[in-house]
């Protein structure tokens, strides 16, 4: 059996993508990245993928701020199927997915969120945690469902909020935790799938 094929979707600089690619290169994640997709042509994740010789795709502009046009999402689902993608990995993808992708990849889309869900859903979760003055926050990997940041939780990592923290320093430490947690959880998912197949 070949290695599981991942598609990574991101809108930003791609630090979680880099962590995943590094885990694959170091043998900690038994997968291959078939495609990197972004909704922003200037996104750093595309440059990181190209430097590694990984195929990239830039989605056309959308009429909506927070989600993709339905026809764009349908075309993306078709492309991912064509690439024989097993698992769709959201890494800072700032669009809410709707039925075309959720239907095409049921229980096959994962996301990482910078809080201990169910606390602090939505945007800038690290800033929400800092403003709420909680002693601990962190990050969560979860299955993606139709409800925002509400799918079943696959793994979490705690990060203490320090007295001297700013939102930026807190976010940086949460991202370090994300870079450890995400490849570990992805490997667990793929190991589970392999066991179910045998």
TrEMBL record:
<keyword id="KW-0658">Purine biosynthesis</keyword>
<dbReference type="InterPro" id="IPR036477">
    <property type="entry name" value="Formyl_transf_N_sf"/>
</dbReference>
<dbReference type="InterPro" id="IPR004607">
    <property type="entry name" value="GART"/>
</dbReference>
<feature type="active site" description="Proton donor">
    <location>
        <position position="113"/>
    </location>
</feature>
<dbReference type="Pfam" id="PF00551">
    <property type="entry name" value="Formyl_trans_N"/>
</dbReference>
<dbReference type="InterPro" id="IPR002376">
    <property type="entry name" value="Formyl_transf_N"/>
</dbReference>
<comment type="pathway">
    <text>Purine metabolism; IMP biosynthesis via de novo pathway; N(2)-formyl-N(1)-(5-phospho-D-ribosyl)glycinamide from N(1)-(5-phospho-D-ribosyl)glycinamide (10-formyl THF route): step 1/1.</text>
</comment>
<dbReference type="GO" id="GO:0006189">
    <property type="term" value="P:'de novo' IMP biosynthetic process"/>
</dbReference>
<dbReference type="InterPro" id="IPR001555">
    <property type="entry name" value="GART_AS"/>
</dbReference>
<comment type="function">
    <text>Catalyzes the transfer of a formyl group from 10-formyltetrahydrofolate to 5-phospho-ribosyl-glycinamide (GAR), producing 5-phospho-ribosyl-N-formylglycinamide (FGAR) and tetrahydrofolate.</text>
</comment>
<feature type="domain" description="Formyl transferase N-terminal">
    <location>
        <begin position="5"/>
        <end position="186"/>
    </location>
</feature>
<feature type="binding site">
    <location>
        <begin position="94"/>
        <end position="97"/>
    </location>
    <ligand>
        <name>(6R)-10-formyltetrahydrofolate</name>
    </ligand>
</feature>
<feature type="binding site">
    <location>
        <position position="111"/>
    </location>
    <ligand>
        <name>(6R)-10-formyltetrahydrofolate</name>
    </ligand>
</feature>
<dbReference type="GO" id="GO:0005737">
    <property type="term" value="C:cytoplasm"/>
</dbReference>
<feature type="binding site">
    <location>
        <position position="67"/>
    </location>
    <ligand>
        <name>(6R)-10-formyltetrahydrofolate</name>
    </ligand>
</feature>
<feature type="binding site">
    <location>
        <begin position="14"/>
        <end position="16"/>
    </location>
    <ligand>
        <name>N(1)-(5-phospho-beta-D-ribosyl)glycinamide</name>
    </ligand>
</feature>
<feature type="site" description="Raises pKa of active site His">
    <location>
        <position position="149"/>
    </location>
</feature>
<comment type="similarity">
    <text>Belongs to the GART family.</text>
</comment>
<protein>
    <recommendedName>
        <fullName>Phosphoribosylglycinamide formyltransferase</fullName>
        <ecNumber>2.1.2.2</ecNumber>
    </recommendedName>
</protein>
<dbReference type="GO" id="GO:0004644">
    <property type="term" value="F:phosphoribosylglycinamide formyltransferase activity"/>
</dbReference>
<keyword id="KW-0808">Transferase</keyword>
